[in-house]
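Obj.: predict assembly geometry.
Materials: sequence records (below).
Method: joint structure prediction, all chains together.
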Amino acid sequence: MILQLATGGLLLGCIYGLVSMGLSLIYGVMGIVNFAHGAFVMLAMYASYWLSLFVGIDPVLGTPLVALLMFGFGIVVYRAIIGRVLRGPFLARLLVTFGLSIFFINMAQFLWSPDYRMVQKSISRGIIMLGPVFIELPKLVASIGSLIVAGLIYWFLRKTKTGLAIQAISIDRSAAALMGINLERLNAIAFGLGLACAGAAGALLASYYYIFPDVGTMFGLVALVAVALGGFGSTEGALIGAILIGIIETLGGFYVGPEYKYALIFLAYVLIVIARPKGLMGWGAD
Amino acid sequence: MQRDDIRNLAMLVAFAIIGLLFPIVATTRFSQHILVMVVLYAVLGEAWNIMAGYAGMVSIGQAAFFGLGAYVSSVLSVKYGVSPWLGMLCAGLATAAFATVIGLPFSRLRGRYFAIGTIALGQMIKVVFENWQWVGAATGLMIPLANQGFASFQFHASKLPYYYTGLALLLLTLAFMYIMERSKMGYYFKAIRENEDVASGLGVNRTAYKLIAIAVSAGITGMCGTFLAQYSLYVEPEYMFNHSISVTIALVAVFGGSGNIIGPVLGSAILMPISELTRAWLGSSGTGIDLMIYGAFIVLMCVYEPEGLVGMARRIGASIKAQRERRGAARCQNS
Amino acid sequence: MSELVVKGLTKKFGGLIAVNDVSFSVKSGEILGLIGPNGAGKTTVFNCLTGFLKADGGSVEFNGRSIYNCSPNAICALGVARTFQVVQVLQGMSALENVMVGAYLRHSRTAASRRRALEALERVGMSRFADMRAVNLTLPAKKRLEVAMCLATDPQVLMLDESMAGLTPTEIHDASSMICELRDAGMALIVVEHVMEAIMPIADRVMVLDSGIKIAEGLPAEIVRDPRVVSAYLGDKYAKRVKC
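Observations (raw structure tokens):
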């Protein structure tokens, strides 16, 4: 039973991991806590849904397309909004993404109604047995997909020139600027990449998860907790934190009661952050 | 100094008179409802202001204190027949005490870690109340109807008595903040907001002052919780602990301008009517249009006017003054 | 007459010993210069003495009372104040308000605190900037403001961390005479300084740190000739040449 639960937690954790990675990337590069991250996951889920309904693209196969769409959307949002508040006061930087989140969630509710929707046809269906453990195929596919995307992002950050420049910014912004790195352009790219992570996660989730305006909120909050657990700015920390949370959620949901599972996640956040005010692997400013 | 004090006192009195005059034009129940919401959120925004605007601890979980206050007085009234007024006092004290206990570990967290911690707090306490059978779990509690009047803190014929009660609460809060801003406490709060290390290097006991700010803010917020419970005569976790309450509180204060006394009042006076009217015009709540406009407001405010309405007014004032001086200088040259 | 006595102060960061068994004392009417190359542990000593870092060993006594690892505010309340290496002021508040925060420590009422703060500003020659927001002040003005903030807390020991770095010669001259005035008024001062020409003429005693170890202490004239000090600053080769 424990094995079954842990596997479930691990699978969930992989998707959380992808969402968290995007959040962490954005924070590391521009110091913005993206409270709208969950809303972007939700938008990506809707995008996936419409694509499958009207164009007939399967959510899993459409993942790169949705990620690309979200990347472009991220650049637009950065240019129009985020970039303009970066030099503003702390409160503005903290609350702007809050505003975005409220806006997008309620826009979805207004335009597309609060009804639950579900993608009717998906290529990944059914359950497979892996030793003693039942695994739902859609979840497995989504988790593997998440790991692939996370791997791609990781490769991009470590091996490409742009990726290295982005890392340089998150280590020391002013030194990076002195080295001739164009902050504005790379901020935009990093924000786009962060949203692409949310987009890919949303598309993968859309293959088996209910879609409704508030669906992203919990993913966003969980990612926030995961990133804080891992330490703001640490991409690996975010991934580890997310998997930890996936396991806490499934195990806690089973042993303490499903109604308490999110309370447990938040409790874990509060306890860990109080013990280590900068997260497990954190560094950088407050 | 002296002249300043007199001017400010005059402003407060003028403000109170304007507040008392509003009901003359607000004759419908709906317009009275808007007035009640304006004063309620003005008080809530000021309470947030103490903690976030002055002491620099940004909370996005005020609903935790708000709901707790609503439940304390309601439980006392439903289960033990305690007068809501006494309940309100208990609610204030209980939430302040709760906030002090919570604040002890929380005061170690800085900046965004604190803000996320308050979100977590708001979500956790909601879950606890949703599953607590003794207080009615997810269905909550109904406050039994009583004869209307100040003794029972229930008014059925008109909403105006609620408005006056809220206005009194607002004036008390404003008076407290006026004194606070000019005292050691106010200066210490601001010092902590600006730079904790410098503050403690100058002898400020930061933990103690942070706890004071959190407790006062939570206490006032808890009393507002009682107010809304008596206004709607029921409490329910989804209603009293709703995350949107926390967000609205922060928004009202930031929109008006945080870190000064008048900001949240202005913010509430402008935002609450907008939100209530859009909700009424564009259909019942649930379509999301009211909150959508809210969200857009937050974003626009952060991008174009991060100092809030008060900051905008100050800037306009400064440019008018500069223009006048330039004109004065030009006149000197001409003569 | 007050006295700060430090014995065997030690601070470790992981495996690195940043301050290793350092002892010294300073008393009223005296300027102790604290010098050493970058990374010698000067600022760490300050941070340990003022409670901003928890030390790992030793003792710190102020007027016979242990202030070892007390909280920063408690240490300040006892009469030990400090400035920061990277100038730190309350950016969003006016210069006067900055100093008032310090003055409130001994004067709870606003009017009294304001009076004390104006005195402190006057003393560092900053009266005309009283209403200016701290963020808009120039670097030398911010450094003066920082000193005024400390003075407003009525300290008996004042610790200045590189308060002359980045100043022009004239400004250094002004700052030096201000420090001397404070000493003559009976204050004990510990001054961390990189600018040798600034610290040597005013210090009564100089202590040298290198890699967390105290390598020399004495009169300024002795210190500049001390071969250990020269080698710490300039390397062994140069030290030998000085000797012959």
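Conclusions so far: Residues 256 and 309 of chain B are 5 Å apart (CA to CA).
To do: check interface contacts against the pulldown list.
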